[in-house]
Amino acid sequence: MYGASVKPWRLHYFYKRNEVIWRTTQKNFFAQARRLPQLEIERQEFALMLIKYITDGIPVMYFDETSFQLEMTLRRAFYPRKDKLVMPIPRGQRKGFSLYGCIGSCVAGGAYFEVHDSSNKEDFKAFMRNLEDQLI
Questions:
Q1: pLDDT tens, 44-68?
Q2: Is residue 108 part of a domain?
Q3: Are 91 and 78 in contact (CB under 8 A)?
């Protein structure tokens, strides 16, 4: 891409000369491999139960909430071998928001979403009150 290449077997010279190491800075949130068959069985049971509810005419709604941080997060970084990895975040730049949503056959338009500044109890209650007005 930039006309340069890095040979993996040469990286140890870079690490040694600059006294840095290459480490993951975030955790991986994957299920344990031994639990995957059990999770698949649970998912299939849930899907069958959901199909039964829908075919019986019971209204089904799915709620979800997710939060977004408006700051950059690094997956990997170089840092001095002797020091602990510290990633400073400038003051006032930790802005984020939460998105609440609901989809279902009893919701007007099939879906309803709201954006809030946080995911605290008051914001969730406000979302639920507003959602009540959207039900058919």
A1: 998 899 888 888 988 888 889 988 7
A2: yes
A3: no
